[in-house]
Amino acid sequence: MSEGTDGAAADRELLERIRAAPVLAGPLLTFDPDRAPGAPGPLFAAWLDRALADGVPEPQIMTLSTAAADGTPSARVLMLRGVDSADCAVVFAGDRRSGKGRDLAANPVAAVSWYWPAHGRQIRMTGPVDALDAGTARRDYLGRSPASRAAGLAGVTSAPLGSLAEYARERRAAQERVAAEPDAVPEGHTVYRLRARQAEFWQADPERGHLRLHYTRDGDGWTRTLLWP
After folding, report:
1. Considering only CA atoms, which of 45, 22, 217, 211 is closest in space to residue 114?
2. Which residues form the Pyridoxine 5'-phosphate oxidase dimerisation C-terminal domain (predicted)?
3. Which H or E run contains 225?
4. How far apart are CA 137 and CA 72, in angstroms?
């Protein structure tokens, strides 16, 4: 059997395993969109609070999607750093010299999303992104654990890495710097704020009767509508 045939057989086997994997096994939460608030920010805060209270694994972790100047998309997983529920805005951080930083400098619009399988809930937001002031960035960075600060001081996110040995050396040097300079902040550390223009809430149903509630910013208020799932 040729190498290509072996690969095709393995792919078919993998597809069968994907199809057999449990999905929306429940029990899931329910959602009544008629009782949802008129603005998405309070609903986001309520869903996140419920996820934290119920012990959903890492509900603060989100996917950030950006696009380069030429439109090339890129997505990565990072941590939610703050919420403004009154304005439906979320805060995250990164190095402005990284891929996401360069994308946001060229095209300051992004999308963020969360998926919590234990609740069968997905949230999506899109909107313009602004970089907050240097003082906010400094407070964010210095509020992190020593390990997290050392990680941020070791190299530049997304830059090419020559070897694992280089990585080990840079990490050791960064750990030593954190101990010697506890107020050190990387040059590129930036805190960003995404102010949602659109927000969507998706509630799964084991019988596939999913619900989607979509909000669109309309001046100082919001319009909302149900969408076909």
Report:
1. 45
2. 190-229
3. strand 221-227
4. 27
- Domain residue ranges in the chain: 23-145+186-227
Its CATH architecture, for the domain 23-145+186-227, is: Roll (2.30)
Tokens coding 15? 């597809």
Tokens read off for 3: 């190498």
Residue 111 identity: A
Write the pLDDT tens digit of every residue in 67-120: 999 999 999 999 999 999 999 999 999 999 999 999 999 999 999 999 999 999
| First vs last C-alpha separation in the chain | 43
Tokens of 94: 């990164």
Q: How many CA atoms lie within 13 A of 73 on its CB side?
A: 8
Q: How far apart are the C-alpha atoms of 203 and 200, rounded to whole Å? A: 10
Rounded mean pLDDT, 114-142: 97
Yes or no: say if 123 and 110 are a contact pair by the CB < 8 Å rule.
no
